[in-house]
Design goal:
Layout (H helix, E strand, L loop, with lengths): L5 E4 L2 E9 L4 H13 L3 E5 L5 H12 L3 E6 L2 E5 L9 E5 L4 H13 L9 E5 L10 H9 L3 E4 L8 E4 L8 E5 L4 H10 L7 E6 L5 H13 L4 E4 L3 E4 L10 E3 L4 H14 E7 L12 H7 L3 E5 L2 E5 L6 E2 L2 E3 L7 H7 L3 E2 L2 E4 L11 H11 L3 E4 L3 E5 L10 E3 L5 H7 L9 E4 L11 H8 E3 L2 E5 L6 H12 L2 E4 H15 L6 H10 L2 E4 L2 E4 L2 E3 L6 H11 L2 H12 L7 E5 L2 H5 L5 E6 L2 H14 L6 H17 L12 E4 L5 H14 L1
Parallel strand pairs: 2-15, 3-14, 6-7, 10-11, 18-20, 19-21, 24-25, 27-32, 27-33, 28-32, 33-34
Antiparallel strand pairs: 1-25, 2-26, 3-5, 4-5, 7-9, 8-9, 11-13, 12-13, 15-17, 16-17, 21-23, 22-23, 29-30, 30-31
Helix pairs in contact: 1-2, 1-3, 1-6, 2-3, 3-5, 4-5, 5-6, 9-11, 13-21, 14-16, 15-17, 19-20
Amino acid sequence: MTSDNFLDLPPLLSARGKVTLPGSKSISNRVLLLAALSEGVTEVRDVLLSDDTERMLDSLQKLGVGIERLDTHVFRVTGCGGEFPVKDAELFLGNAGTAFRPLTAVLALSGGSNGAGGHYTLSGVARMHERPIGDLVDALRQLGANIDYLGNEGFPPLEIFPAHLDDAAHVSVRGDVSSQFLTALLMALPLLDREVIVEVEGELISKPYIEITMAMMARFWVVASRQGWNSFAVAAGSRYKSPETIYVEGDASSASYFLAAGAIGGGPVRVEGVSKDSVQGDVRFADALALMGAQITMGPNWMEARAPEGGRLKAIDLDCNHIPDAAMTLAVTALFADGTTTLRNIASWRVKETDRIHAMATELRKVGATVEEGADFIRITPPQSSALSTQSSIDTYDDHRMAMCFSLAAFGGVGVRINDPKCVAKTFPDYFSAFASVTQAVPVIAIDGPSASGKGTVAGRVAATLGFHYLDSGALYRLLALAAQRDGIALDDEAALAGLAGRIDIRFEGSDIWLDGSKVGDELRSEVTGGYASQVAALHSVRAALLDKQRSFRRAPGLVTDGRDMASVVFPDAGCKIFLTASAEARADRRYKQLKEKGMGANIAALLQDIQARDERDSQRSAAPLQQAPGASLLDTTALNIEQAVQEVLDRYQAK
């Protein structure tokens, strides 16, 4: 079930298939900026279309860079040779760190030492204004840049003025907060007319992202040299020149979700667009999965993962400096590993789109994990049982990676609600569609139909034949009506009934039904109770209150359910939808025989009249009216016996 505010993922059984990755966000924004700074025209292919890249493209156009869209993921960029035509601009960069940090450095150093730079303001969303940038600003000021803070010291928004750059030959920058500070400096240094040596203070985190930066600069004919990881330099006279055409690699961080799905859900799952030869450090996520026991294979432009031969992953203790973004995927994968997983050297999580260590710990606890968090580590012990807690509602903190990571929790035997699913637009707008294409949900056979059509009997026997769980949704409303009578709640008191629906405990055990710990007998099937159930089922709030309870019955290996809105409202993604019906006369005759077999009095004329009246009432009500759902196949059982009807449903399910 989806809305603008959440997405309900069903419980998943397995994963298998192939996904072509979108372009890398990190590479897309680096290449677009370098193409803009270059001499010549560059055709950039396979650009990621996302919030972050839209911010970069929009900003470059505002700065006067010529950008022409040739195809969906192809842009022609006319470089400005390091001198932006527009000298006064206000740039809004959302929460795009890969755009904000490099643009800050490039704009601050534009114009070189002659003071020919411009006046610019850079701002973003509220979270961007909480992400530190002081270390980068301090380094730029060492070179003579003229930058003011418009809010809190050390944080965006910023105002940049034309600089009168000095002849400093050395500059220092901290490396233990964000590698984007060093990336920004390196990309901006060719705008100067001299060699500048950048000294890194502290341990440089996320080193693979610096390797990406240096590799992309080299594609534009600028070589950044380094001494270890502590000193970097760009030779005097270096200038960016167009490579004419450049391709953006598939996003290795995005590959992690699908590789993990293959390792958890059996696989194989293949991702196309990256390989072991990728310039992105996050391809080493595959190595981490291999340490957990996953079977990994690679080809010239693909990687593939499947579950361990023994079926279960094992916990690891890993320094994740080399895979800072993909390490988030390991945190959720740890839910499916035997033992306690520890992920270390992840301090950079604290200053990302959200405080990812705290956010990850909070949401993992929701699904039953035991979590310990520190300044630069997280330790995860999965729940005691093989299944996760009851369906959880996962908050995503406006962080695309939180949303994508926790889609994997749906392999835990229960569904998962992802709040604010649209946040994935930052890097992978079509993520959930791609995820659904390689995952197989717990199957559902939804059998809808009018009262007394035999759908309950048929559904129960189909479930028994397949070994699936069974949900008699009509029984839920009958049980609620009984509970209301027991508690003295009027059948028109919608608020009180909805509250009761959320509280009652219902269990199906074979042919037995339990309400709040007490076994329910024949009173559940009486005509009086059926009439009461029809009344409460017409109330919108009651149906909404029972929705999650009904969906909780969807568990491996599968579910057969019957009712009046199973295929249209409760399980719209059901793989097999049946609208089972029969003539009113046939249904009245079947109900008469059922009651007589139980020794209960019955009048066939009265039963027929009641069925016809209920059909009319159920088809006209505003809350889930009785109707054949889109995609449901009609099965008229007027001339069929139970065995024939059951076989027909089984045949249709197998055909699906």
